[in-house]
Each structure stands twice: as C-alpha cells, then as structure tokens.
From TrEMBL:
This protein's name: DDE superfamily endonuclease
Transmembrane stretches, start-end: none
Organism: Popillia japonica
Disordered as annotated region, ranges: 130-154
Compositionally skewed regions (Basic and acidic residues) per UniProt: 140-154
Family matches, as InterPro entries: DDE_SF_endonuclease_dom
Domain DDE-1 as annotated: residue spans: 1-60
Lineage of the species this protein comes from: Eukaryota, Metazoa, Ecdysozoa, Arthropoda, Hexapoda
Key words of the record: Endonuclease, Hydrolase, Nuclease
Protein's UniProt keywords contain Iron-sulfur: no
Superkingdom to which the source organism belongs: Eukaryota
GO terms assigned for molecular function: endonuclease activity; nucleic acid binding
Length: 173
C-alpha cells in the first residue's frame, strides 16, 4: 500500500488527538492520564473512516492497476486544506495565537524522516524473497510447528477481554 494512505491516516489521527487535547479542561498531563488505549484505538478507527475511498483506491491502483487509467497522486491541496482547518481550530484558543500554518505542517510531517517511513515496495519484495531463499536452505528439522489458527469469534472475545482489562487498570490507577 502507498505511503500516502499512512500519511493521511497519521494526519487525521493527530488532528483528532489535538482536538481532544484542546477540548480538555485540565492540563496536558491530566489529559494523558485519562487517555487510554481504547481512546487511541477509537481515534485511529475514526481517522481511518475519514480517509476518502478514492485515496485508498489510488494507492492500490499503483500496485495492481485494474484499468488503464492515469493514476493521479493525491495532491498537496488536501494536506494544505487540512493544515488550514487545523490552524482555524487552534487559533480559537488564546494559548495558540502565535501558531502559524508552517508550524502545523511541520508538526504533521514530523515523522517523515524516521526510519521505516520511506521503505519502498522493491525493498520489501527483496527482503521477502531473500527470506524465502534462506528458509529453503534450512534443515527440515529446524522448521517450527504451524501456528494454531484463531477463529474470528475467539479473536473478538479476546479483544473484548483486553479492553475490559485495560479499563479496569485505568480505573484503578
């Protein structure tokens, strides 16, 4: 999948996170004490839901073009529009009057230079091929037992159990 989809997801998540921080009456430390994994998961889901279907479709067209059509990369116009929207939200608060669009764009793209962001499809394919070749050369006795398959119902029950546990931990602290 294209890095543009991941970047769009991160931008929307940061926007939701900032909105939650600004809506909080207490200070930043109080907010992060209240912020739970469940909140992060729900915010991630909301961010994913906000990504236009066309963005996701275009990212897959780059990997597996179905029709012969010109693949148009998502322009910076949508990123610029997000920055403008976020700037309008932020500047409603007195503490953020000095923030400008450049600061917001810098914050939204702060992880572009982190390792892993620019991993290309060719690199992933090469590493997978190399891994397959290494596994072909290993002895049969070195192979691990196949993992037990988990049904969707079991996975859902486990996720519910994890959320209950995390809520209990959050309430007790």
């Amino acid at each position: 999948m294209d890095q543009g989809v991941l970047e769009a997801l991160k931008r929307r998540f940061r926007k939701l996170l900032l909105r939650c921080v600004l809506e909080e009456d207490g200070d930043l430390q109080q907010f992060y004490k209240k912020w739970s994994i469940k909140d992060a998961i729900l915010s991630s889901a909301d961010s994913w839901d906000d990504i236009p279907a066309q963005t996701i479709q275009r990212s897959w067209n780059k990997l597996y073009p179905v029709d012969v059509e010109v693949i148009v990369k998502e322009t910076d116009g949508s990123a610029s529009q997000e920055s403008s929207t976020l700037l309008n939200i932020i500047q409603d608060f007195d503490a953020f009057q000095t923030v400008d669009k450049e600061n917001i764009e810098e914050w939204l793209s702060s992880d572009k230079h982190q390792p892993g962001y620019e991993i290309k499809d060719d690199t992933i394919a090469y590493e997978a091929l190399e891994s397959d070749q290494l596994s072909d050369n290993t002895d049969v006795s070195d192979k691990e037992e196949p993992l037990e398959k988990v049904s969707p119902d079991e996975a859902l029950k486990s996720a519910d159990c994890l959320l209950k546990f995390l809520e209990q931990e959050h309430d007790s602290s």
